[in-house]
Amino acid sequence: MKSAVETLNPTRVRLSIEVPFEELKDSLDAAYKKINQQVTVKGFRKGKIPNRVIDQRFGRGAVLEEAVNDALPKFYTEAVNEGELNVLGQPEVDITELKDGELLAFTAEVDVRPEIEIPDYSGIEVTVDALEVTDEDVDKAVEQLRERFASTNPVERAAAEGDVVTIDLEAKVDGEVLEDGVAAGVSYTIGSGELLEGIDEAVTGLEAGGEATFTSELKGGSAEGKEAEVTVKVTAVASRELPELDDDFAQMASEFDTLAELREDSRKRLENTKQYDQATQAQERVLEELLKLAEVPIPEKLLADEVQTRKHNLEHHQLGQMGLDLEKYLEIQGKTLEEFENETSEQAIKGIKTQFILDELVNKEKLNVNQEELTEHLMRRAQSSGMSPDQFAQAVVEGGQVPMLVGEVARGKALAVVVEAAKVVDTNGEIVELEDEDEAAEGTEEATEAAEGAEAADEKKDEKNEA
C-alpha cells in the first residue's frame, strides 16, 4: 500500500491511497463467503457455491463492491497511522480507480487537529474580586437562617406585606376559565414575588373571605405568556414571627451556644465561599486571556457538528423539560434566531479552542492523571448528576466515557499550570495566592466542560476506526 498526505488547510487533509490488488485477497475471500451465505443456487448446497458461479450469476462487480467496502477502513487506518495524523470525525472517501486484478486507488478527506503553538502565558495578569466579607454580609446570612425558623400565627385582620395568606386562584383567558388555571389552598408570602405579577397589590388589605380580580401575564401552563384575568380569594391570613436574635436562637438553629459564635461561623463560611468563587473567577479570566493569545484554527465540519449538537440538546432536552420550543424560548430571551445561532457558534468555537489548547498543554507539560484524581473527579461528577458514585461509574464504563473523564481531569490540571504562572490581583491591588488550584481547576466548567460537548472532538477522533 502507498499513501500520500496533502494538506488542504490547517485543519483538513486529503489522503491519496493506492492498494495493490493482491492486498485485497482477504477481503475478496470474505466477500465470497458472505455472499455464499446469503444466496441460493440450484445444484449447489448453501455456502458451497464456487466463486466462478457467483461471478456468473451475480456479477464480479457485486463481489468487488463488497470486498472494497470491507477493505477501505483497514487501509484508511493504516494510512492515518503511517502519516501520524490526529484525525477528527469520519472521512469523505472517493474511489478514484478500481482495476480488477490490478489496483484499488481512493482518496479520503478528513479533518485533523491543527498544530498549535502554545504562547508564553507567564505574562498573563488578571484582576478578581477582593476577598471581603462585611458585617452586612454576615447580617444577611444570619437573617436568612432566621427566616427558616419563622413561625406563623393566624390573625383576624387585613393582610399586609410579610404575611402568609392562604388563597384560591382562578385564571380566565378571553372569558374562559383555563383547565389548568384553577388552584386552591395555595400558601403565599406577600412581597415574596413568587407568584403572579400584581398579586401582592390584590391581596394586600384583604381579610379572610375577601377576594379581588387583577390582570397578569401567565408564567406557565397552557396559556403561558398570555394576559389573564385572575380572581384571588383569601381564605386565611397569618402573620410571620421571627425568633429573637439571641443565644437561644443560636442554640436552636445551630450547634453553637452563643449568637457571637454563630455569626463567626457564618463569616468563615462566607469567606470560604468567596475564596472558592475568587479561584473560579481567576481560572475563567486566565483562560480568557490564554484564548486571546493562542491562534487556533477551527475545523469547519467539527464546528458545524458541535453547533448542531448544542442546538439539539437545547431543543430536545433542556427546553423540552420546561415545556418550551425554540421559538418561545427566543421570544422570552428577546433574541432573534440569527442572534441565537451566532451566540451558539461563538460558544462552540470557544469550547473547541479551549479543548485543543489545554490538550496541547497536557502533552507539552507531560501531565498525567492518576487513579486517585480520576476517582475524585468521578465522585464530583456523580454528585452533580444526582447519581450515586457506583451508578455513575457504571454508566461511564458502559458508555466508554472513561477517556473523556480522564481528559477532563487532565485539562483541569493544564489550566492550573497556567493559573499558577499568571499574576492574579484583586480589586484592591493585592496579590492573590490561590490554594488547591488543581482541585478547583478540575471542577471549573471553563476547564473541563468549557466545551460542553467539545469532547465531541475526542469522540469524533475515535470514529476514524469505523470509517
TrEMBL record:
Q: Which InterPro entries match?
A: PPIase_dom_sf (IPR046357), PPIase_FKBP_dom (IPR001179), Trig_fac (IPR005215), Trigger_fac_C (IPR008880), Trigger_fac_C_sf (IPR037041), Trigger_fac_ribosome-bd_bac (IPR008881), Trigger_fac_ribosome-bd_sf (IPR036611), Trigger_fact/SurA_dom_sf (IPR027304)
Entry's Gene Ontology molecular function annotations: peptidyl-prolyl cis-trans isomerase activity; protein folding chaperone; ribosome binding
All copies of domain PPIase FKBP-type, residue ranges: 162-215
Q: Where is the composition biased (Basic and acidic residues)?
A: 457-467
Which sequence ranges are marked TM in the entry?
none
| Stated family | Belongs to the FKBP-type PPIase family. Tig subfamily.
Chain's role: Involved in protein export. Acts as a chaperone by maintaining the newly synthesized protein in an open conformation. Functions as a peptidyl-prolyl cis-trans isomerase.
Q: What is the protein's name according to its record? A: Trigger factor
